[in-house]
Amino acid sequence: MKRLIKLGVFLAFVGITTILLCNFWVVYSTRSQVYFDLESLPTNEVGLVLGTSKSVKSGNENLFFRYRMEATARLWKVGKIKHIILSGNNDSEYYNEPSDMKKALLRLGVPEADMTLDYAGYRTFDSVVRCKQVFNQEKITIISQNFHNARALYIGNHQGMSAVAFAAQDIPGGYSFRTLIREYLARPLAVLDVYVVHPKPVMENKEIK
User: Fold this and answer.
1) In 17-28, which positions are buried (b, 16+ CB within 10 angstroms) versus exposed (e)?
2) Which of 10, 41, 120, 163 could form a disulfide with 35 if both were Cys (CB 3.0 to 4.6 A apart)?
3) What b-and-e string marks burial along 171-207, b requiring 16 or more CB atoms within 10 Å of the CB?
4) Pick from 66, 44, 59, 55: which is nearest to 142 by CA?
5) What pLDDT does residue 40 have?
6) What does pTM read for this prediction?
7) Where is the DUF218 domain (predicted)?
8) Pick from 178, 125, 175: which is nearest to 142 by CA?
């Protein structure tokens, strides 16, 4: 019994250490590619917007979505990006992140002609890899909140892409515990995907209606 307890403690220690090291490396290795200031952000032809739900489970507005769309429109209006790939989950006719992002950007003054919708961005890994393999883009500006950008950049770097990221406004009061835990676990999974799993995203781009 004591041996099992010791083994359990050891495995827990190794697991936690691995998670912390992966998080440190993903953030550290991409830190120079994240921009918070609009003026210092390099100009790219294409921006990749990472999808999220327009509302939370309670039905209230998702501020991650709102601030991400506002940042995207701002970058387009000042000429930091010229065309926008909206990549998100469209797993049913009732849930369509790319379409929701398009509607929000239209209201913010971005013309439809300057938007391409990626309906199979089920995960961040899919969004980044499909940006290169499906839409043939290797030099991009990723747009999401700061906590999310590091992981997307890390994936892009290992795809041989030349990417920078713009950090959209964070929500007031900071991130929830659930959001932080989810991201802390997602970063080691990104490392696993890059070096071990090598998952193959869906290659078609079909809207579910």
Assistant:
1) eebeebbeebbe
2) 41
3) eeeebeeeeeeebeebbbbbbebbeeeeeebeeebee
4) 44
5) 95
6) 0.92
7) 48-185
8) 125
